[in-house]
Amino acid sequence: MKKILIINDLLQGGGVEKLMLDIVNYFHNKYEITVMTKENNNDHKKVLPDNVHYMSFGALNNEYSGNVFAMTVGRIKHRLQINEIKKAINNQKFDVLLCMKEGWTMNDALIFAGDIPYKIAWVHTDYSKSYYTGDIYKTAEAEIAIMKNYNKIICVSKVIEESIKTVIGNPGNLTVTYNPVDKDDIVSKAEEPVEDIFRSERPLFVSVGRLNIQKGYDVLMEVCNLLNSDGYEYDVWIIGGGEKCNNYQVLHSLEDQIRRYHLDNVYLLGAKKNPHKYVRQADWFLSTSRYEGYSYVSQEAAIVGKPLMLTECSGVMELLGLESNGIVMENSFKGIYYGMKKVIENPELSKEYSNRIKIKTHKEYWDDQMQKIEKLFMAEE
User: Does the pLDDT of residue 243 top 60, yes or no?
Assistant: First the structure.
């Protein structure tokens, strides 16, 4: 039985973490899997199957205070901890490394597990819209050198593949594989009742995403303020947590906007174990993201049969196929405002677009996409 080590910064969170857990749940009876995360998660036994091992390197950090002696001791301890983890990984003799994210995660995975013979990493970010890894690697050449240590770099959309080539160059090992979605599971969960919030008769927009700056919820609050001032009646439900670091600051900022603008029709519902049942209540699934890779939640909303309103960013046209399957809004305050205004004024559009997206052929079938991923990490055979 092949042994697979999966490395990510978080165990639970957004689309990256969902992809990781989907892979774990799909393959855990076929391969021996260990998951390692930077942030230690004490709930790992509730999240992972019983036969999946878990470890964390979250205790490691480079922040030491005090005098020069204390800092020196801290750095030595840090190096010893790294060596201990590397030794533990080498003793396990893993066959495959799956690194779930670009940036620091891709770099950390090589530090700890660079000796594993076959390595794959994912990139979820459109480099042309958010080249945050430039702050990590400093030069394109340095990032390309890291990427070349992997046998395959999986881009979750064609746009992301092209953005890497354009911004930093082609490492020569890029491939495009769309995120898998479990259609039957999503449809089943969508049927569950919503009991914690009342669904009014007004047009309802539902958005799902972690409360960070990427998702553009700050712009959405401004849009809602103008729509309300113009007398439009509608509701917005936002499903997503804001309990971590910068996300917590974003949560407070959004709450402040809601209070300041008296947005009584906008509801921050927090993170939900089953967001699909909330999406099912919607007239429109709404994404106001500044940038995306290949939106997991939009795929899932389409499976539930909900029409999509998405700001223009990478992967959108790949997801919709033709623009007639959903509404692509200009990625701006004006674009979101006029998009929402249009569908509020024309309620029949919800049913029309819903029917279109239901008959769209979805290429991201669960088994097919999982088997494509499996072929990639079994390619050394």
Answer: no
**What's the start-to-end Cα distance of the chain, in Å?**
13
Residue 63's pLDDT is 46
110-132 per-position pLDDT tens digit = 999 989 999 999 999 889 888 99
Locate CATH 3.40.50.2000 in the chain.
3-180+365-377, 183-359
Q: How far is it, in rounded angstroms, from Cα 157 to Cα 176?
A: 6
List Cβ neighbours of 320 (8 Å cut-off, separation of 6 or more): 308, 310, 326, 328, 360
| 54, two tokens | 């878990």
pLDDT, averaged across the chain? 87
Q: CA-CA distance, 226 to 340, in Å (whole number)?
A: 11
Read off the pTM.
0.76
Instruction: Please tell me which residue, 272 or 315, carries the higher pLDDT value.
Output: 272
Give the bridge partners for 55, in sequence order.
Answer: 36
* Residue 152: strand, helix, or coil: strand
**Does the pLDDT of residue 5 top 90, yes or no?**
yes
* Token representation of residue 209: 């995403």
Stretch 182-194: mean pLDDT:
91
Instruction: Quote the CA–CA distance of 327 and 133 in Å, as a whole number.
Output: 31
* Distance of alpha carbon 227 from alpha carbon 357, whole angstroms: 27
Q: What dihedral angle (degrees, nearest 10) is formed by the CA atoms of 21, 377, 173, 314?
A: -30
Instruction: Could you please state the CATH topology (level 3) that the domain comprising 183-359 is classified under.
Output: Rossmann fold (3.40.50)
Q: What is the 3-state secondary structure (H, E, C) of 28-75?
A: CCCCEEEEEECCCCCCHHHHCCCCCEEEECCCCCCCCCCCHHHHHHHH
Question: 3-180+365-377 adopts what CATH topology?
Answer: Rossmann fold (3.40.50)
- Give the CA angle between residues 121, 122, 125 to the nearest 5°: 140
Kind plus residue range of the DSSP H or E element containing 267 = strand 266-270
